Amino acid sequence: MCGIVGYVGRKRAYPILIKGLKRLEYRGYDSAGVAMIGDDGGLNVYKSKGKVADLETHCEEKDTTGTTGIAHTRWATHGEPNSANAHPHYSASGRLALIHNGIIENYVTLKENLMKRDIAFRSDTDSEVLVQLIEYIMLSNQLDLFQAMQVALHQVIGAYAIAVLDREHPDTIVCARQSSPLVVGLGADGEYFLASDASPIAEYTDRVVYLNDGDIAVLQLGKRLNVVSLSGERQHPKVRQIDVTLGQLEKGGYPFFMLKEIFEQPQCIRDCMRGRINVEGDRITLSAVIDYREALVAARRIIIVACGTSWHAALIGKQLIESLCRIPVEVEYASEFRYRNPVIQPDDVVIAISQSGETADTLAAVDLARGAGALVMGVCNAIGASIPRLTQTGVYIHVGPEIGVASTKAFTGQVAVLAMLALCIAKERQTISDELYKSMVRELTLIPEKMERTLQASEHIEKMASIFTYARNCLYLGRGYNYPVALEGALKLKEISYIHAEGYPAAEMKHGPIALIDSEMPVFVIATRDKLYEKVVSNVQEVRARGGRVTALITEGDEQIRHLADHVIELPDTIDCFQPLIASIPLQLLAYHIAVCKGKDVDRPRNLAKSVTVE
Ligand code: G6P
């Protein structure tokens, strides 16, 4: 989704802005632009369709001087991706330039009103309305930019993070946020950085302020950060420490972030468990469970809301919590949940799973659940993001920044947290025996090492991948805990290789997808030795009987399926409920290697965004 970068300081802004945009490339975008107040006092805006590198080429012969600037990567919502629709947008007089993330819902009405006053528009975007409205209010009421924004934003309905430059005030950026994240970095010497997440800021400063909804902030060189609410009250922003290292933001020798992140998983799961599982490896402590023990023990129902990959993790969480804690769990797409007037009781616990902590639909579901009086818990990765700040409690997955658009380590991190959460709640509710609890905790501590063994299959999978590049459709089958793994495997393939893929519960195949099976359609079956193993073997036989080509994920040493499958990938054994932590890895690798074979841009698949901050 769109990305914002800003800088006010004593250094040259352009290189900082371009570098910042590159750090945000992972969010997904189709055009980019930059605005600086040049050394001669002019406000220069440059924009181009395509990548940040295209913007750099476009800027080669231009005046890129100046120590104050804003920059943007756009993911088109209103108006096609072209340079006119790219941000920043000039105001009618050329005095202001604005960048915007989000969607303005009443832009048609606002635009019509402004056009009646002879204001001409240069783009098809909803965003341009903001800069025209702000300037119109500023000039007709003789206000400064900050005052004009306060008035203008009262007329705006929708979601926004905006940053605005005024040529008349070359050392200042004014920005505002409503339902779309914005982070201010406090640099040395009175300088400020601005971004839609901490990644472009991390290399300059570890002191940040996360703006809240309704905040308008003035970033003026050498002056204290001034934050005021939309209603005019002065805010006292909390300065927080971020601990993202530069290494975490770079590829570290891997050709793509996605591969790096797949390989990081053993360490990520260790980090996720560190300080939570004791050194003896037989007890889990989660402060969210300690702090909200009563509500969790008494919960009549748990509702998990999420989108995309996080929704798949939720499906695994459901099975874990229901089987260990004996609490009914419902899993909801946040986008559906928020609009269907769901029944939410005060003794429900709502868990919002979101890697970014900024997904607009999940955020809205959190609001709804809080409004209904439920305890809301976040399971997030991005520290200090909106969901962790808006929920009463939560558990961070602590897997470090995930840059590849296709989620990998965040998925396994989410599953690991849900496993720990289920075990903790089960212990408190006494729905698990001491013996089983301890043996499960011990098994969880062995998962990173088993992940490492699984990753050794990467070369084997790479060789196998070229066989599947011809495929137009693929089927992924699994049962029980491996059914969400099948869904996630199919999603990974679709996202980055653009091959259509479906995940199905293996037995359900008979009710439709079996009609599609022929020798042209690869079928990937997760057939590890678990409770449902024999049943999955029968499903594999059904595929074979129709001439289907089977690639099976099997438990090390299993000979039975080996004879039925065209290809096998061996996995270390673990207990059923932790199998997704292992089995998802070869499917991530498979999707990765197939996409690379097809020459795709794995980290930045077309049309997708890492952080979906619009509904
Ligand atoms: C986008 C991303 C997915 C992600 C989903 C939910 O679609 O491309 O990888 O799973 O959003 O994101 P969240 O940050 O809420 O987990």
**Low-pLDDT sequence parts:** none
> Count of DSSP helices?
18
* CATH T-level fold name of the largest domain: Glutamine Phosphoribosylpyrophosphate, subunit 1, domain 1
Structural class: alpha/beta
* Approximate strand percentage: 15-25%
User: What is the general shape?
Assistant: globular
Short précis:
This protein is 36% helix and 22% strand.
Structural summary, described in words:
By secondary structure, this protein is α/β, with parallel strands linked by helices. The chain folds into three domains: 246 residues, Aminohydrolase, N-terminal nucleophile (Ntn) domain (Glutamine Phosphoribosylpyrophosphate, subunit 1, domain 1, 4-Layer Sandwich); 204 residues, Glucose-6-phosphate isomerase like protein, domain 1 (Rossmann fold); 140 residues, Glucose-6-phosphate isomerase like protein, domain 1 (Rossmann fold, 3-Layer(aba) Sandwich). Helices cover 36% and strands 22% of the residues. It contains 18 helices and 24 strands. Strands 3-2-4-1-10-9-11-14 form an eight-stranded antiparallel sheet, covered by helices on one side. Strands 5-6-7-8-12-13 form a six-stranded antiparallel sheet, with helices on one face. The protein has a five-stranded parallel sheet with strand order 16-15-17-18-19, with helices on both faces. The longest helix has 22 residues. The chain binds 6-O-phosphono-alpha-D-glucopyranose (G6P).
